[in-house]
Amino acid sequence: xxxxxxxxxxxxxxxxxRWLYTTNHKDIGSMYxxxxxxxxxxxGVFALVIRAELFQxxxxxxxxxxxxQMTTMHGLVMVFGAVMPAFVGLANWMIxxxxxxxxxxxxxxxxxxxxxxxxxxxxxxxxxxxxxxxPNFGWTFYAPLSxxxxxxxxxxxxxxxxxxxxxxxxxxxxxxxxxxxxxxxxMTYMKMPLFVWTWLITAYLLxxxxxxxxxxxxxxxxxxxxxxxxxxxxxxxxPVLFQHVFWFFGHPEVYIxxxxxxxxxxxxxPTFSRKKLFGYDSMVYATSxxxxxxxxxxxxxxxxxxxxxxxxxxxxxxxxxxxxPTGVKVFNWITTMFRGSISFETPxxxxxxxxxxxxxxxxxxxxxxxxxxxxxxxDTYFVVAHFHYVLVPGAVFSIMAAAYYWLPKxxxxxxxxxxxxxxxxxxxxxxxxxxxxxxxxxLSGMPRRIPDYALQFADFNMISSVGAFLFGFSQLLFMFIVxxxxxxxxxxxxxxxxxxxxxxxxxxxxxxxxxFSTPPTVK
Amino acid sequence: xxxxxxxxPTPAVHxxxxxxxxxxxALMFASPALLAEWGINMTEGVTALSAETFSxxxxxxxxxxxxxxxVYGVLIYSMIAYRKSKGAVPxxxxxxxxxxxxxxxxxxxxxxGMAVPSTRVLTQIYDSSDSDLxxxxxxxxxxxxxxYLADDGAEVTFFSNLxxxxxxxxxxxxxxxxEKGENYLLEVDEPLVIPAGKKVRFLLTSADVIHSWWVPDFxxxxxxxxxxxxxxxxxxxxxxxxxxxxxxxCGRLHGFMPIVVEVKEQADFDAWYAERQAAxxxxxxxxxxxxxxxxxxxxxxxxxxxxxxxxxxxxGQGLPPAFPALTGSAIATGPAADHINIVLNGKxxxxxxxxxxxxxxxxxxxxxxxxxxxxxxxxxxxxxxxxIVQAQAQ
Lengths: 523, 394
Hints:
The structure holds two protein chains of two kinds. Chain A has helices spanning 5-9, 16-21, 25-53, 64-99, 107-126, 154-181, 194-225, 239-256, 259-273, 280-293, 309-321, 323-337, 346-369, 371-377, 381-411, 417-443, 458-487. Chain A is an all-alpha fold. In chain A, helix 9 (259-273) packs across helix 15 (381-411) and helix 16 runs antiparallel to helix 17. The longest helix of chain A has 36 residues, at 64-99. The two termini of chain A are 36 Å apart. By secondary structure, chain B is α+β, with helices and mostly antiparallel strands. Chain B folds into three domains: 48-83 and 98-125, no CATH class; 133-284, Sandwich (Immunoglobulin-like); 290-393, Cytochrome Bc1 Complex, Chain D, domain 2, CATH 1.10.760.10. Chain B is built from eleven helices and ten strands. Chain B has helices at residues 11-30, 34-38, 48-81, 97-126, 166-169, 266-286, 293-312, 330-333, 336-345, 361-373, 385-393; strands at residues 133-140, 143-148, 157-160, 192-195, 200-206, 211-215, 220-224, 230-234, 240-246, 258-264. The longest helix of chain B has 34 residues, at 48-81. Chain B starts with 10 loop residues before the first helix and ends with a helix. At the A-B interface, helix 4, helix 10, helix 11, helix 12 and helix 13 of A face helix 3, helix 4, strand 7 and strand 9 of B.
């Protein structure tokens, strides 16, 4: 780094220190993406342990306590390790190139916000080998199960969450600083690509709620080690307070994982429909409305905790309102395709599947908003099906769509279209075999987070487990496709996709190590 | 078994089970509840409110289906009609304020249509006033305790434990192999019993972590939270057996604390209640009696299997470090007073519960005697109910 100026023109350093010391947004973006894929596989292994245990009634493979550790670690690793870092990786790679900036605004902090993550997850994963086992209280870690009754490893979990939170906050500050300060001349807010818009809003959500998460785990830490009673009724505290604070973070967190996905899909659908995005302005307003509403709906996760009637009604109405802006987005995507000229390359397949299956998750979300019906749905597999439909064919499919969409720009090589389509169809079939039967399981009465179940649930559990293994192993094909593309393949043009618009497609493929050192002008 | 403890009212369970079975067959040939029997849809349940909840669920479901048909219809049409491979030429429109207003306002109106009946049903569910019978429901790791709140003689209170034996859920093989029963994991040793046609109010709380009490047929799901008392209620017209489960993750055996409610006609309920009161009286009288070693050991084995075995294991070896061994432990082989103390009062900061509020003096005396003279221990002393009563008085 001391050589400074010369290095700017000669590309990256070589060896491990390139990655350790790098302040380049493309390097850091790549590291985020690979890290997130590694966590996706790790969290996937945990999920397969769960589905293997649930393949048949009876306890076959693991102790119920270890089963609880698996559900907990699966949730934590997927939410904080796989989905969130993947979107930060995409932001790192794409935002500077989309707004005509040379790099992120705060490159050194960028390095740090990535490099603390592997330590956080190493600490979290190491709890599996500790005496007493890993956290076993669910990824929502309700007190007092996570405080008075927690295994000793809960302290490591708390510090891991602190580090993840710090990483997210730094990442968001960087994204906000970049978008607000480094846009090319002429790129007004209402000309920004939707991916940039959704990330700007997401970054504000992160800054608003990650400190709340840090606060709630710190209160736990004090309850466990320093004699306070925030969440202990015996000491004058309130176990339900935990849930209010957690979900004040947790509900915006749900949108943190889906808004950038909206952005990705809003880039891909117009490209492969060869038609401008329909209703750009309303997309921006809808995203902002969803972000605002996300702060006033948290207690719909708590309908059965015995809130007063007025509270139930408020949170029910507010939650139902979210359907309006979400509907607007779906209608806009479909109207974009209407009277377009559509082709079905792999990114488009994933994006269309996103629209279809996310809408499915939206419908069940609307059903869950109805408080009296929620008494029957709450904490059953219906909820599990709902949020996996939003998160897997929602967030995860959008990340895969983004990877296929921008991979030629990142590597300079086209991916193998046939293999990409095989990967899509395996994933699409796998995911539906995996999660669709879970709607039936939940409606007919199977609670979530149980390692064994009554016999009437046996058939659908078996089907669901088959889908899980199909989906899980299909992702090895994804890894193969990406590695093959990185190694070589048909050379990509700068434009890559016939219908693509935006500054990133004005750059050569692969994008040079430093781009837009001189800002482009946007008319 | 101690003579004074033969109080389990089990025969009714079997006749009730037959009744539900018969009703199940009748339904399969008769009614639209077919899908519920096959386990695809929510149950209509057996109360007015569960039926209302079911209609609400179906209303929203069909609205979603209608919207889905419309949205997916346009999507599929576009995918077929506007393919580039068919030579489709893209249009250039990208904005239409009228369309945006329409698809903002219409969903909003649909939502109001959903909110009105939802509010009505929710308000009814929340009205737990004027109950005929109040029952305290307390969640424990991992069993439910029911206490009938009535000022009419001896208090009726009991625990309801999973009745499915481990050889079924642990998949024992060989000579110990056991076929999983019809109500696998949904059967208890003693069901909650309530009268038909009466408004029964549940007051829910917890002794340790948060649990949640759910019976789908009643559409009642309410969290049992330590330090709080939540309310819920039910009025069931149809006698029978209704099953449910804990639905809030509460630790290792969360999946193993089912709920069974037996609804009896008022006269049958009264008879059952009188019998339980008499039994309660006998148990409290038994606290003054003296028992033989054989009696204590036999009862102690039963109590141990129900309350202690999940953590300390069948052979007393425990699952260290969370659940210490009893075999050769300082407590189980040391002075009886310490042993009585820990069973009565539990141990702070661990999973060891205070059983003084959960079990009768006879049961506590029996299980302590058992732990000191079985599981590889042979201290040789006996603890009598009167010792427990004295320890509790201090």
